[in-house]
Amino acid sequence: MSLMLMAVCAQAQTPQQWRDSVKTLMEQIRLHPQNIDLRLKKAEANINLQQWDYAISEYGDVLRLDEKNLAALYFRAYCYTQQHHYDLAKVDYETFIMIDPLQLSAHLGLAHILQKLGRKADTIDQFNRCVQLFPDSASAYAARAAYETEQKLYDVALYDWDEAIRLQPKNVEYAVSKIDALLRQRRILDARLALDELVRKGTPRAALKEWYDRCR
Question: What is the tens place of the pLDDT at every residue in 64-88?
């Protein structure tokens, strides 16, 4: 399975269609129990039905057949996260990274799990590692900036928002997040100027009303 890892499949299927898929795949797996692709497809259907335990079980079966299967590790960590089993998710992300250390999605997943566990020093270390390993990734800078903003580390957060914007200058969400950090520091004039720059570049002023209101 190729990585960058796919997001959980967003195909336009109804719950009933997913249930039908599970039923069909279960029969196929009964006939071909060693077929990893079938098991991954069934686990995907389980996820789309929010059947976390079934998906976790299926990914466990995949890993018994192929202990280094990255898709199973990544998405089992996702399922554990949905169930708030953060320690188990942490193990799967760490195992994934040991096998393939150059997947940003796994590094960010681990950082968010450490955040959920309340391990602040480890969390910032992991976000730092993301930026060090992926210096050209706007997502890495933005993820670190969001955490820094949450921790009220506004000066370093502004630096990271600027880096994310430099790498993805058309990303309005990053620009607005920077403005939010400015407002949290009560830098009203700087926030207002940043909003005006967004409007100059084409963002409708009406879409930024909430932020302009905060500048009053």
Answer: 999 999 999 999 999 999 999 999 9
Nearest-angstrom CA–CA distance, 39 and 60? 10
Does residue 134 contact residue 35 with C-beta atoms inside 8 Å? no
CA 89: distance to chain centroid? 13
Residue 35, φ and ψ in degrees, nearest 5: -85, 105
Q: Does residue 5 surpass a pLDDT of 50? A: no
Q: What whole-number distance in Å separates Cα of residue 203 and Cα of residue 182? A: 19
Tell me how far CA of residue 170 lies from CA of 116, 175, 202, 206, 210, in angstroms: 30, 9, 10, 18, 20
- CA gap 134, 104 in Å, rounded: 7
Decide if pLDDT at 8 tops 80. no
- Separation between Cα atoms, residue 53 and residue 83, nearest integer Å: 9
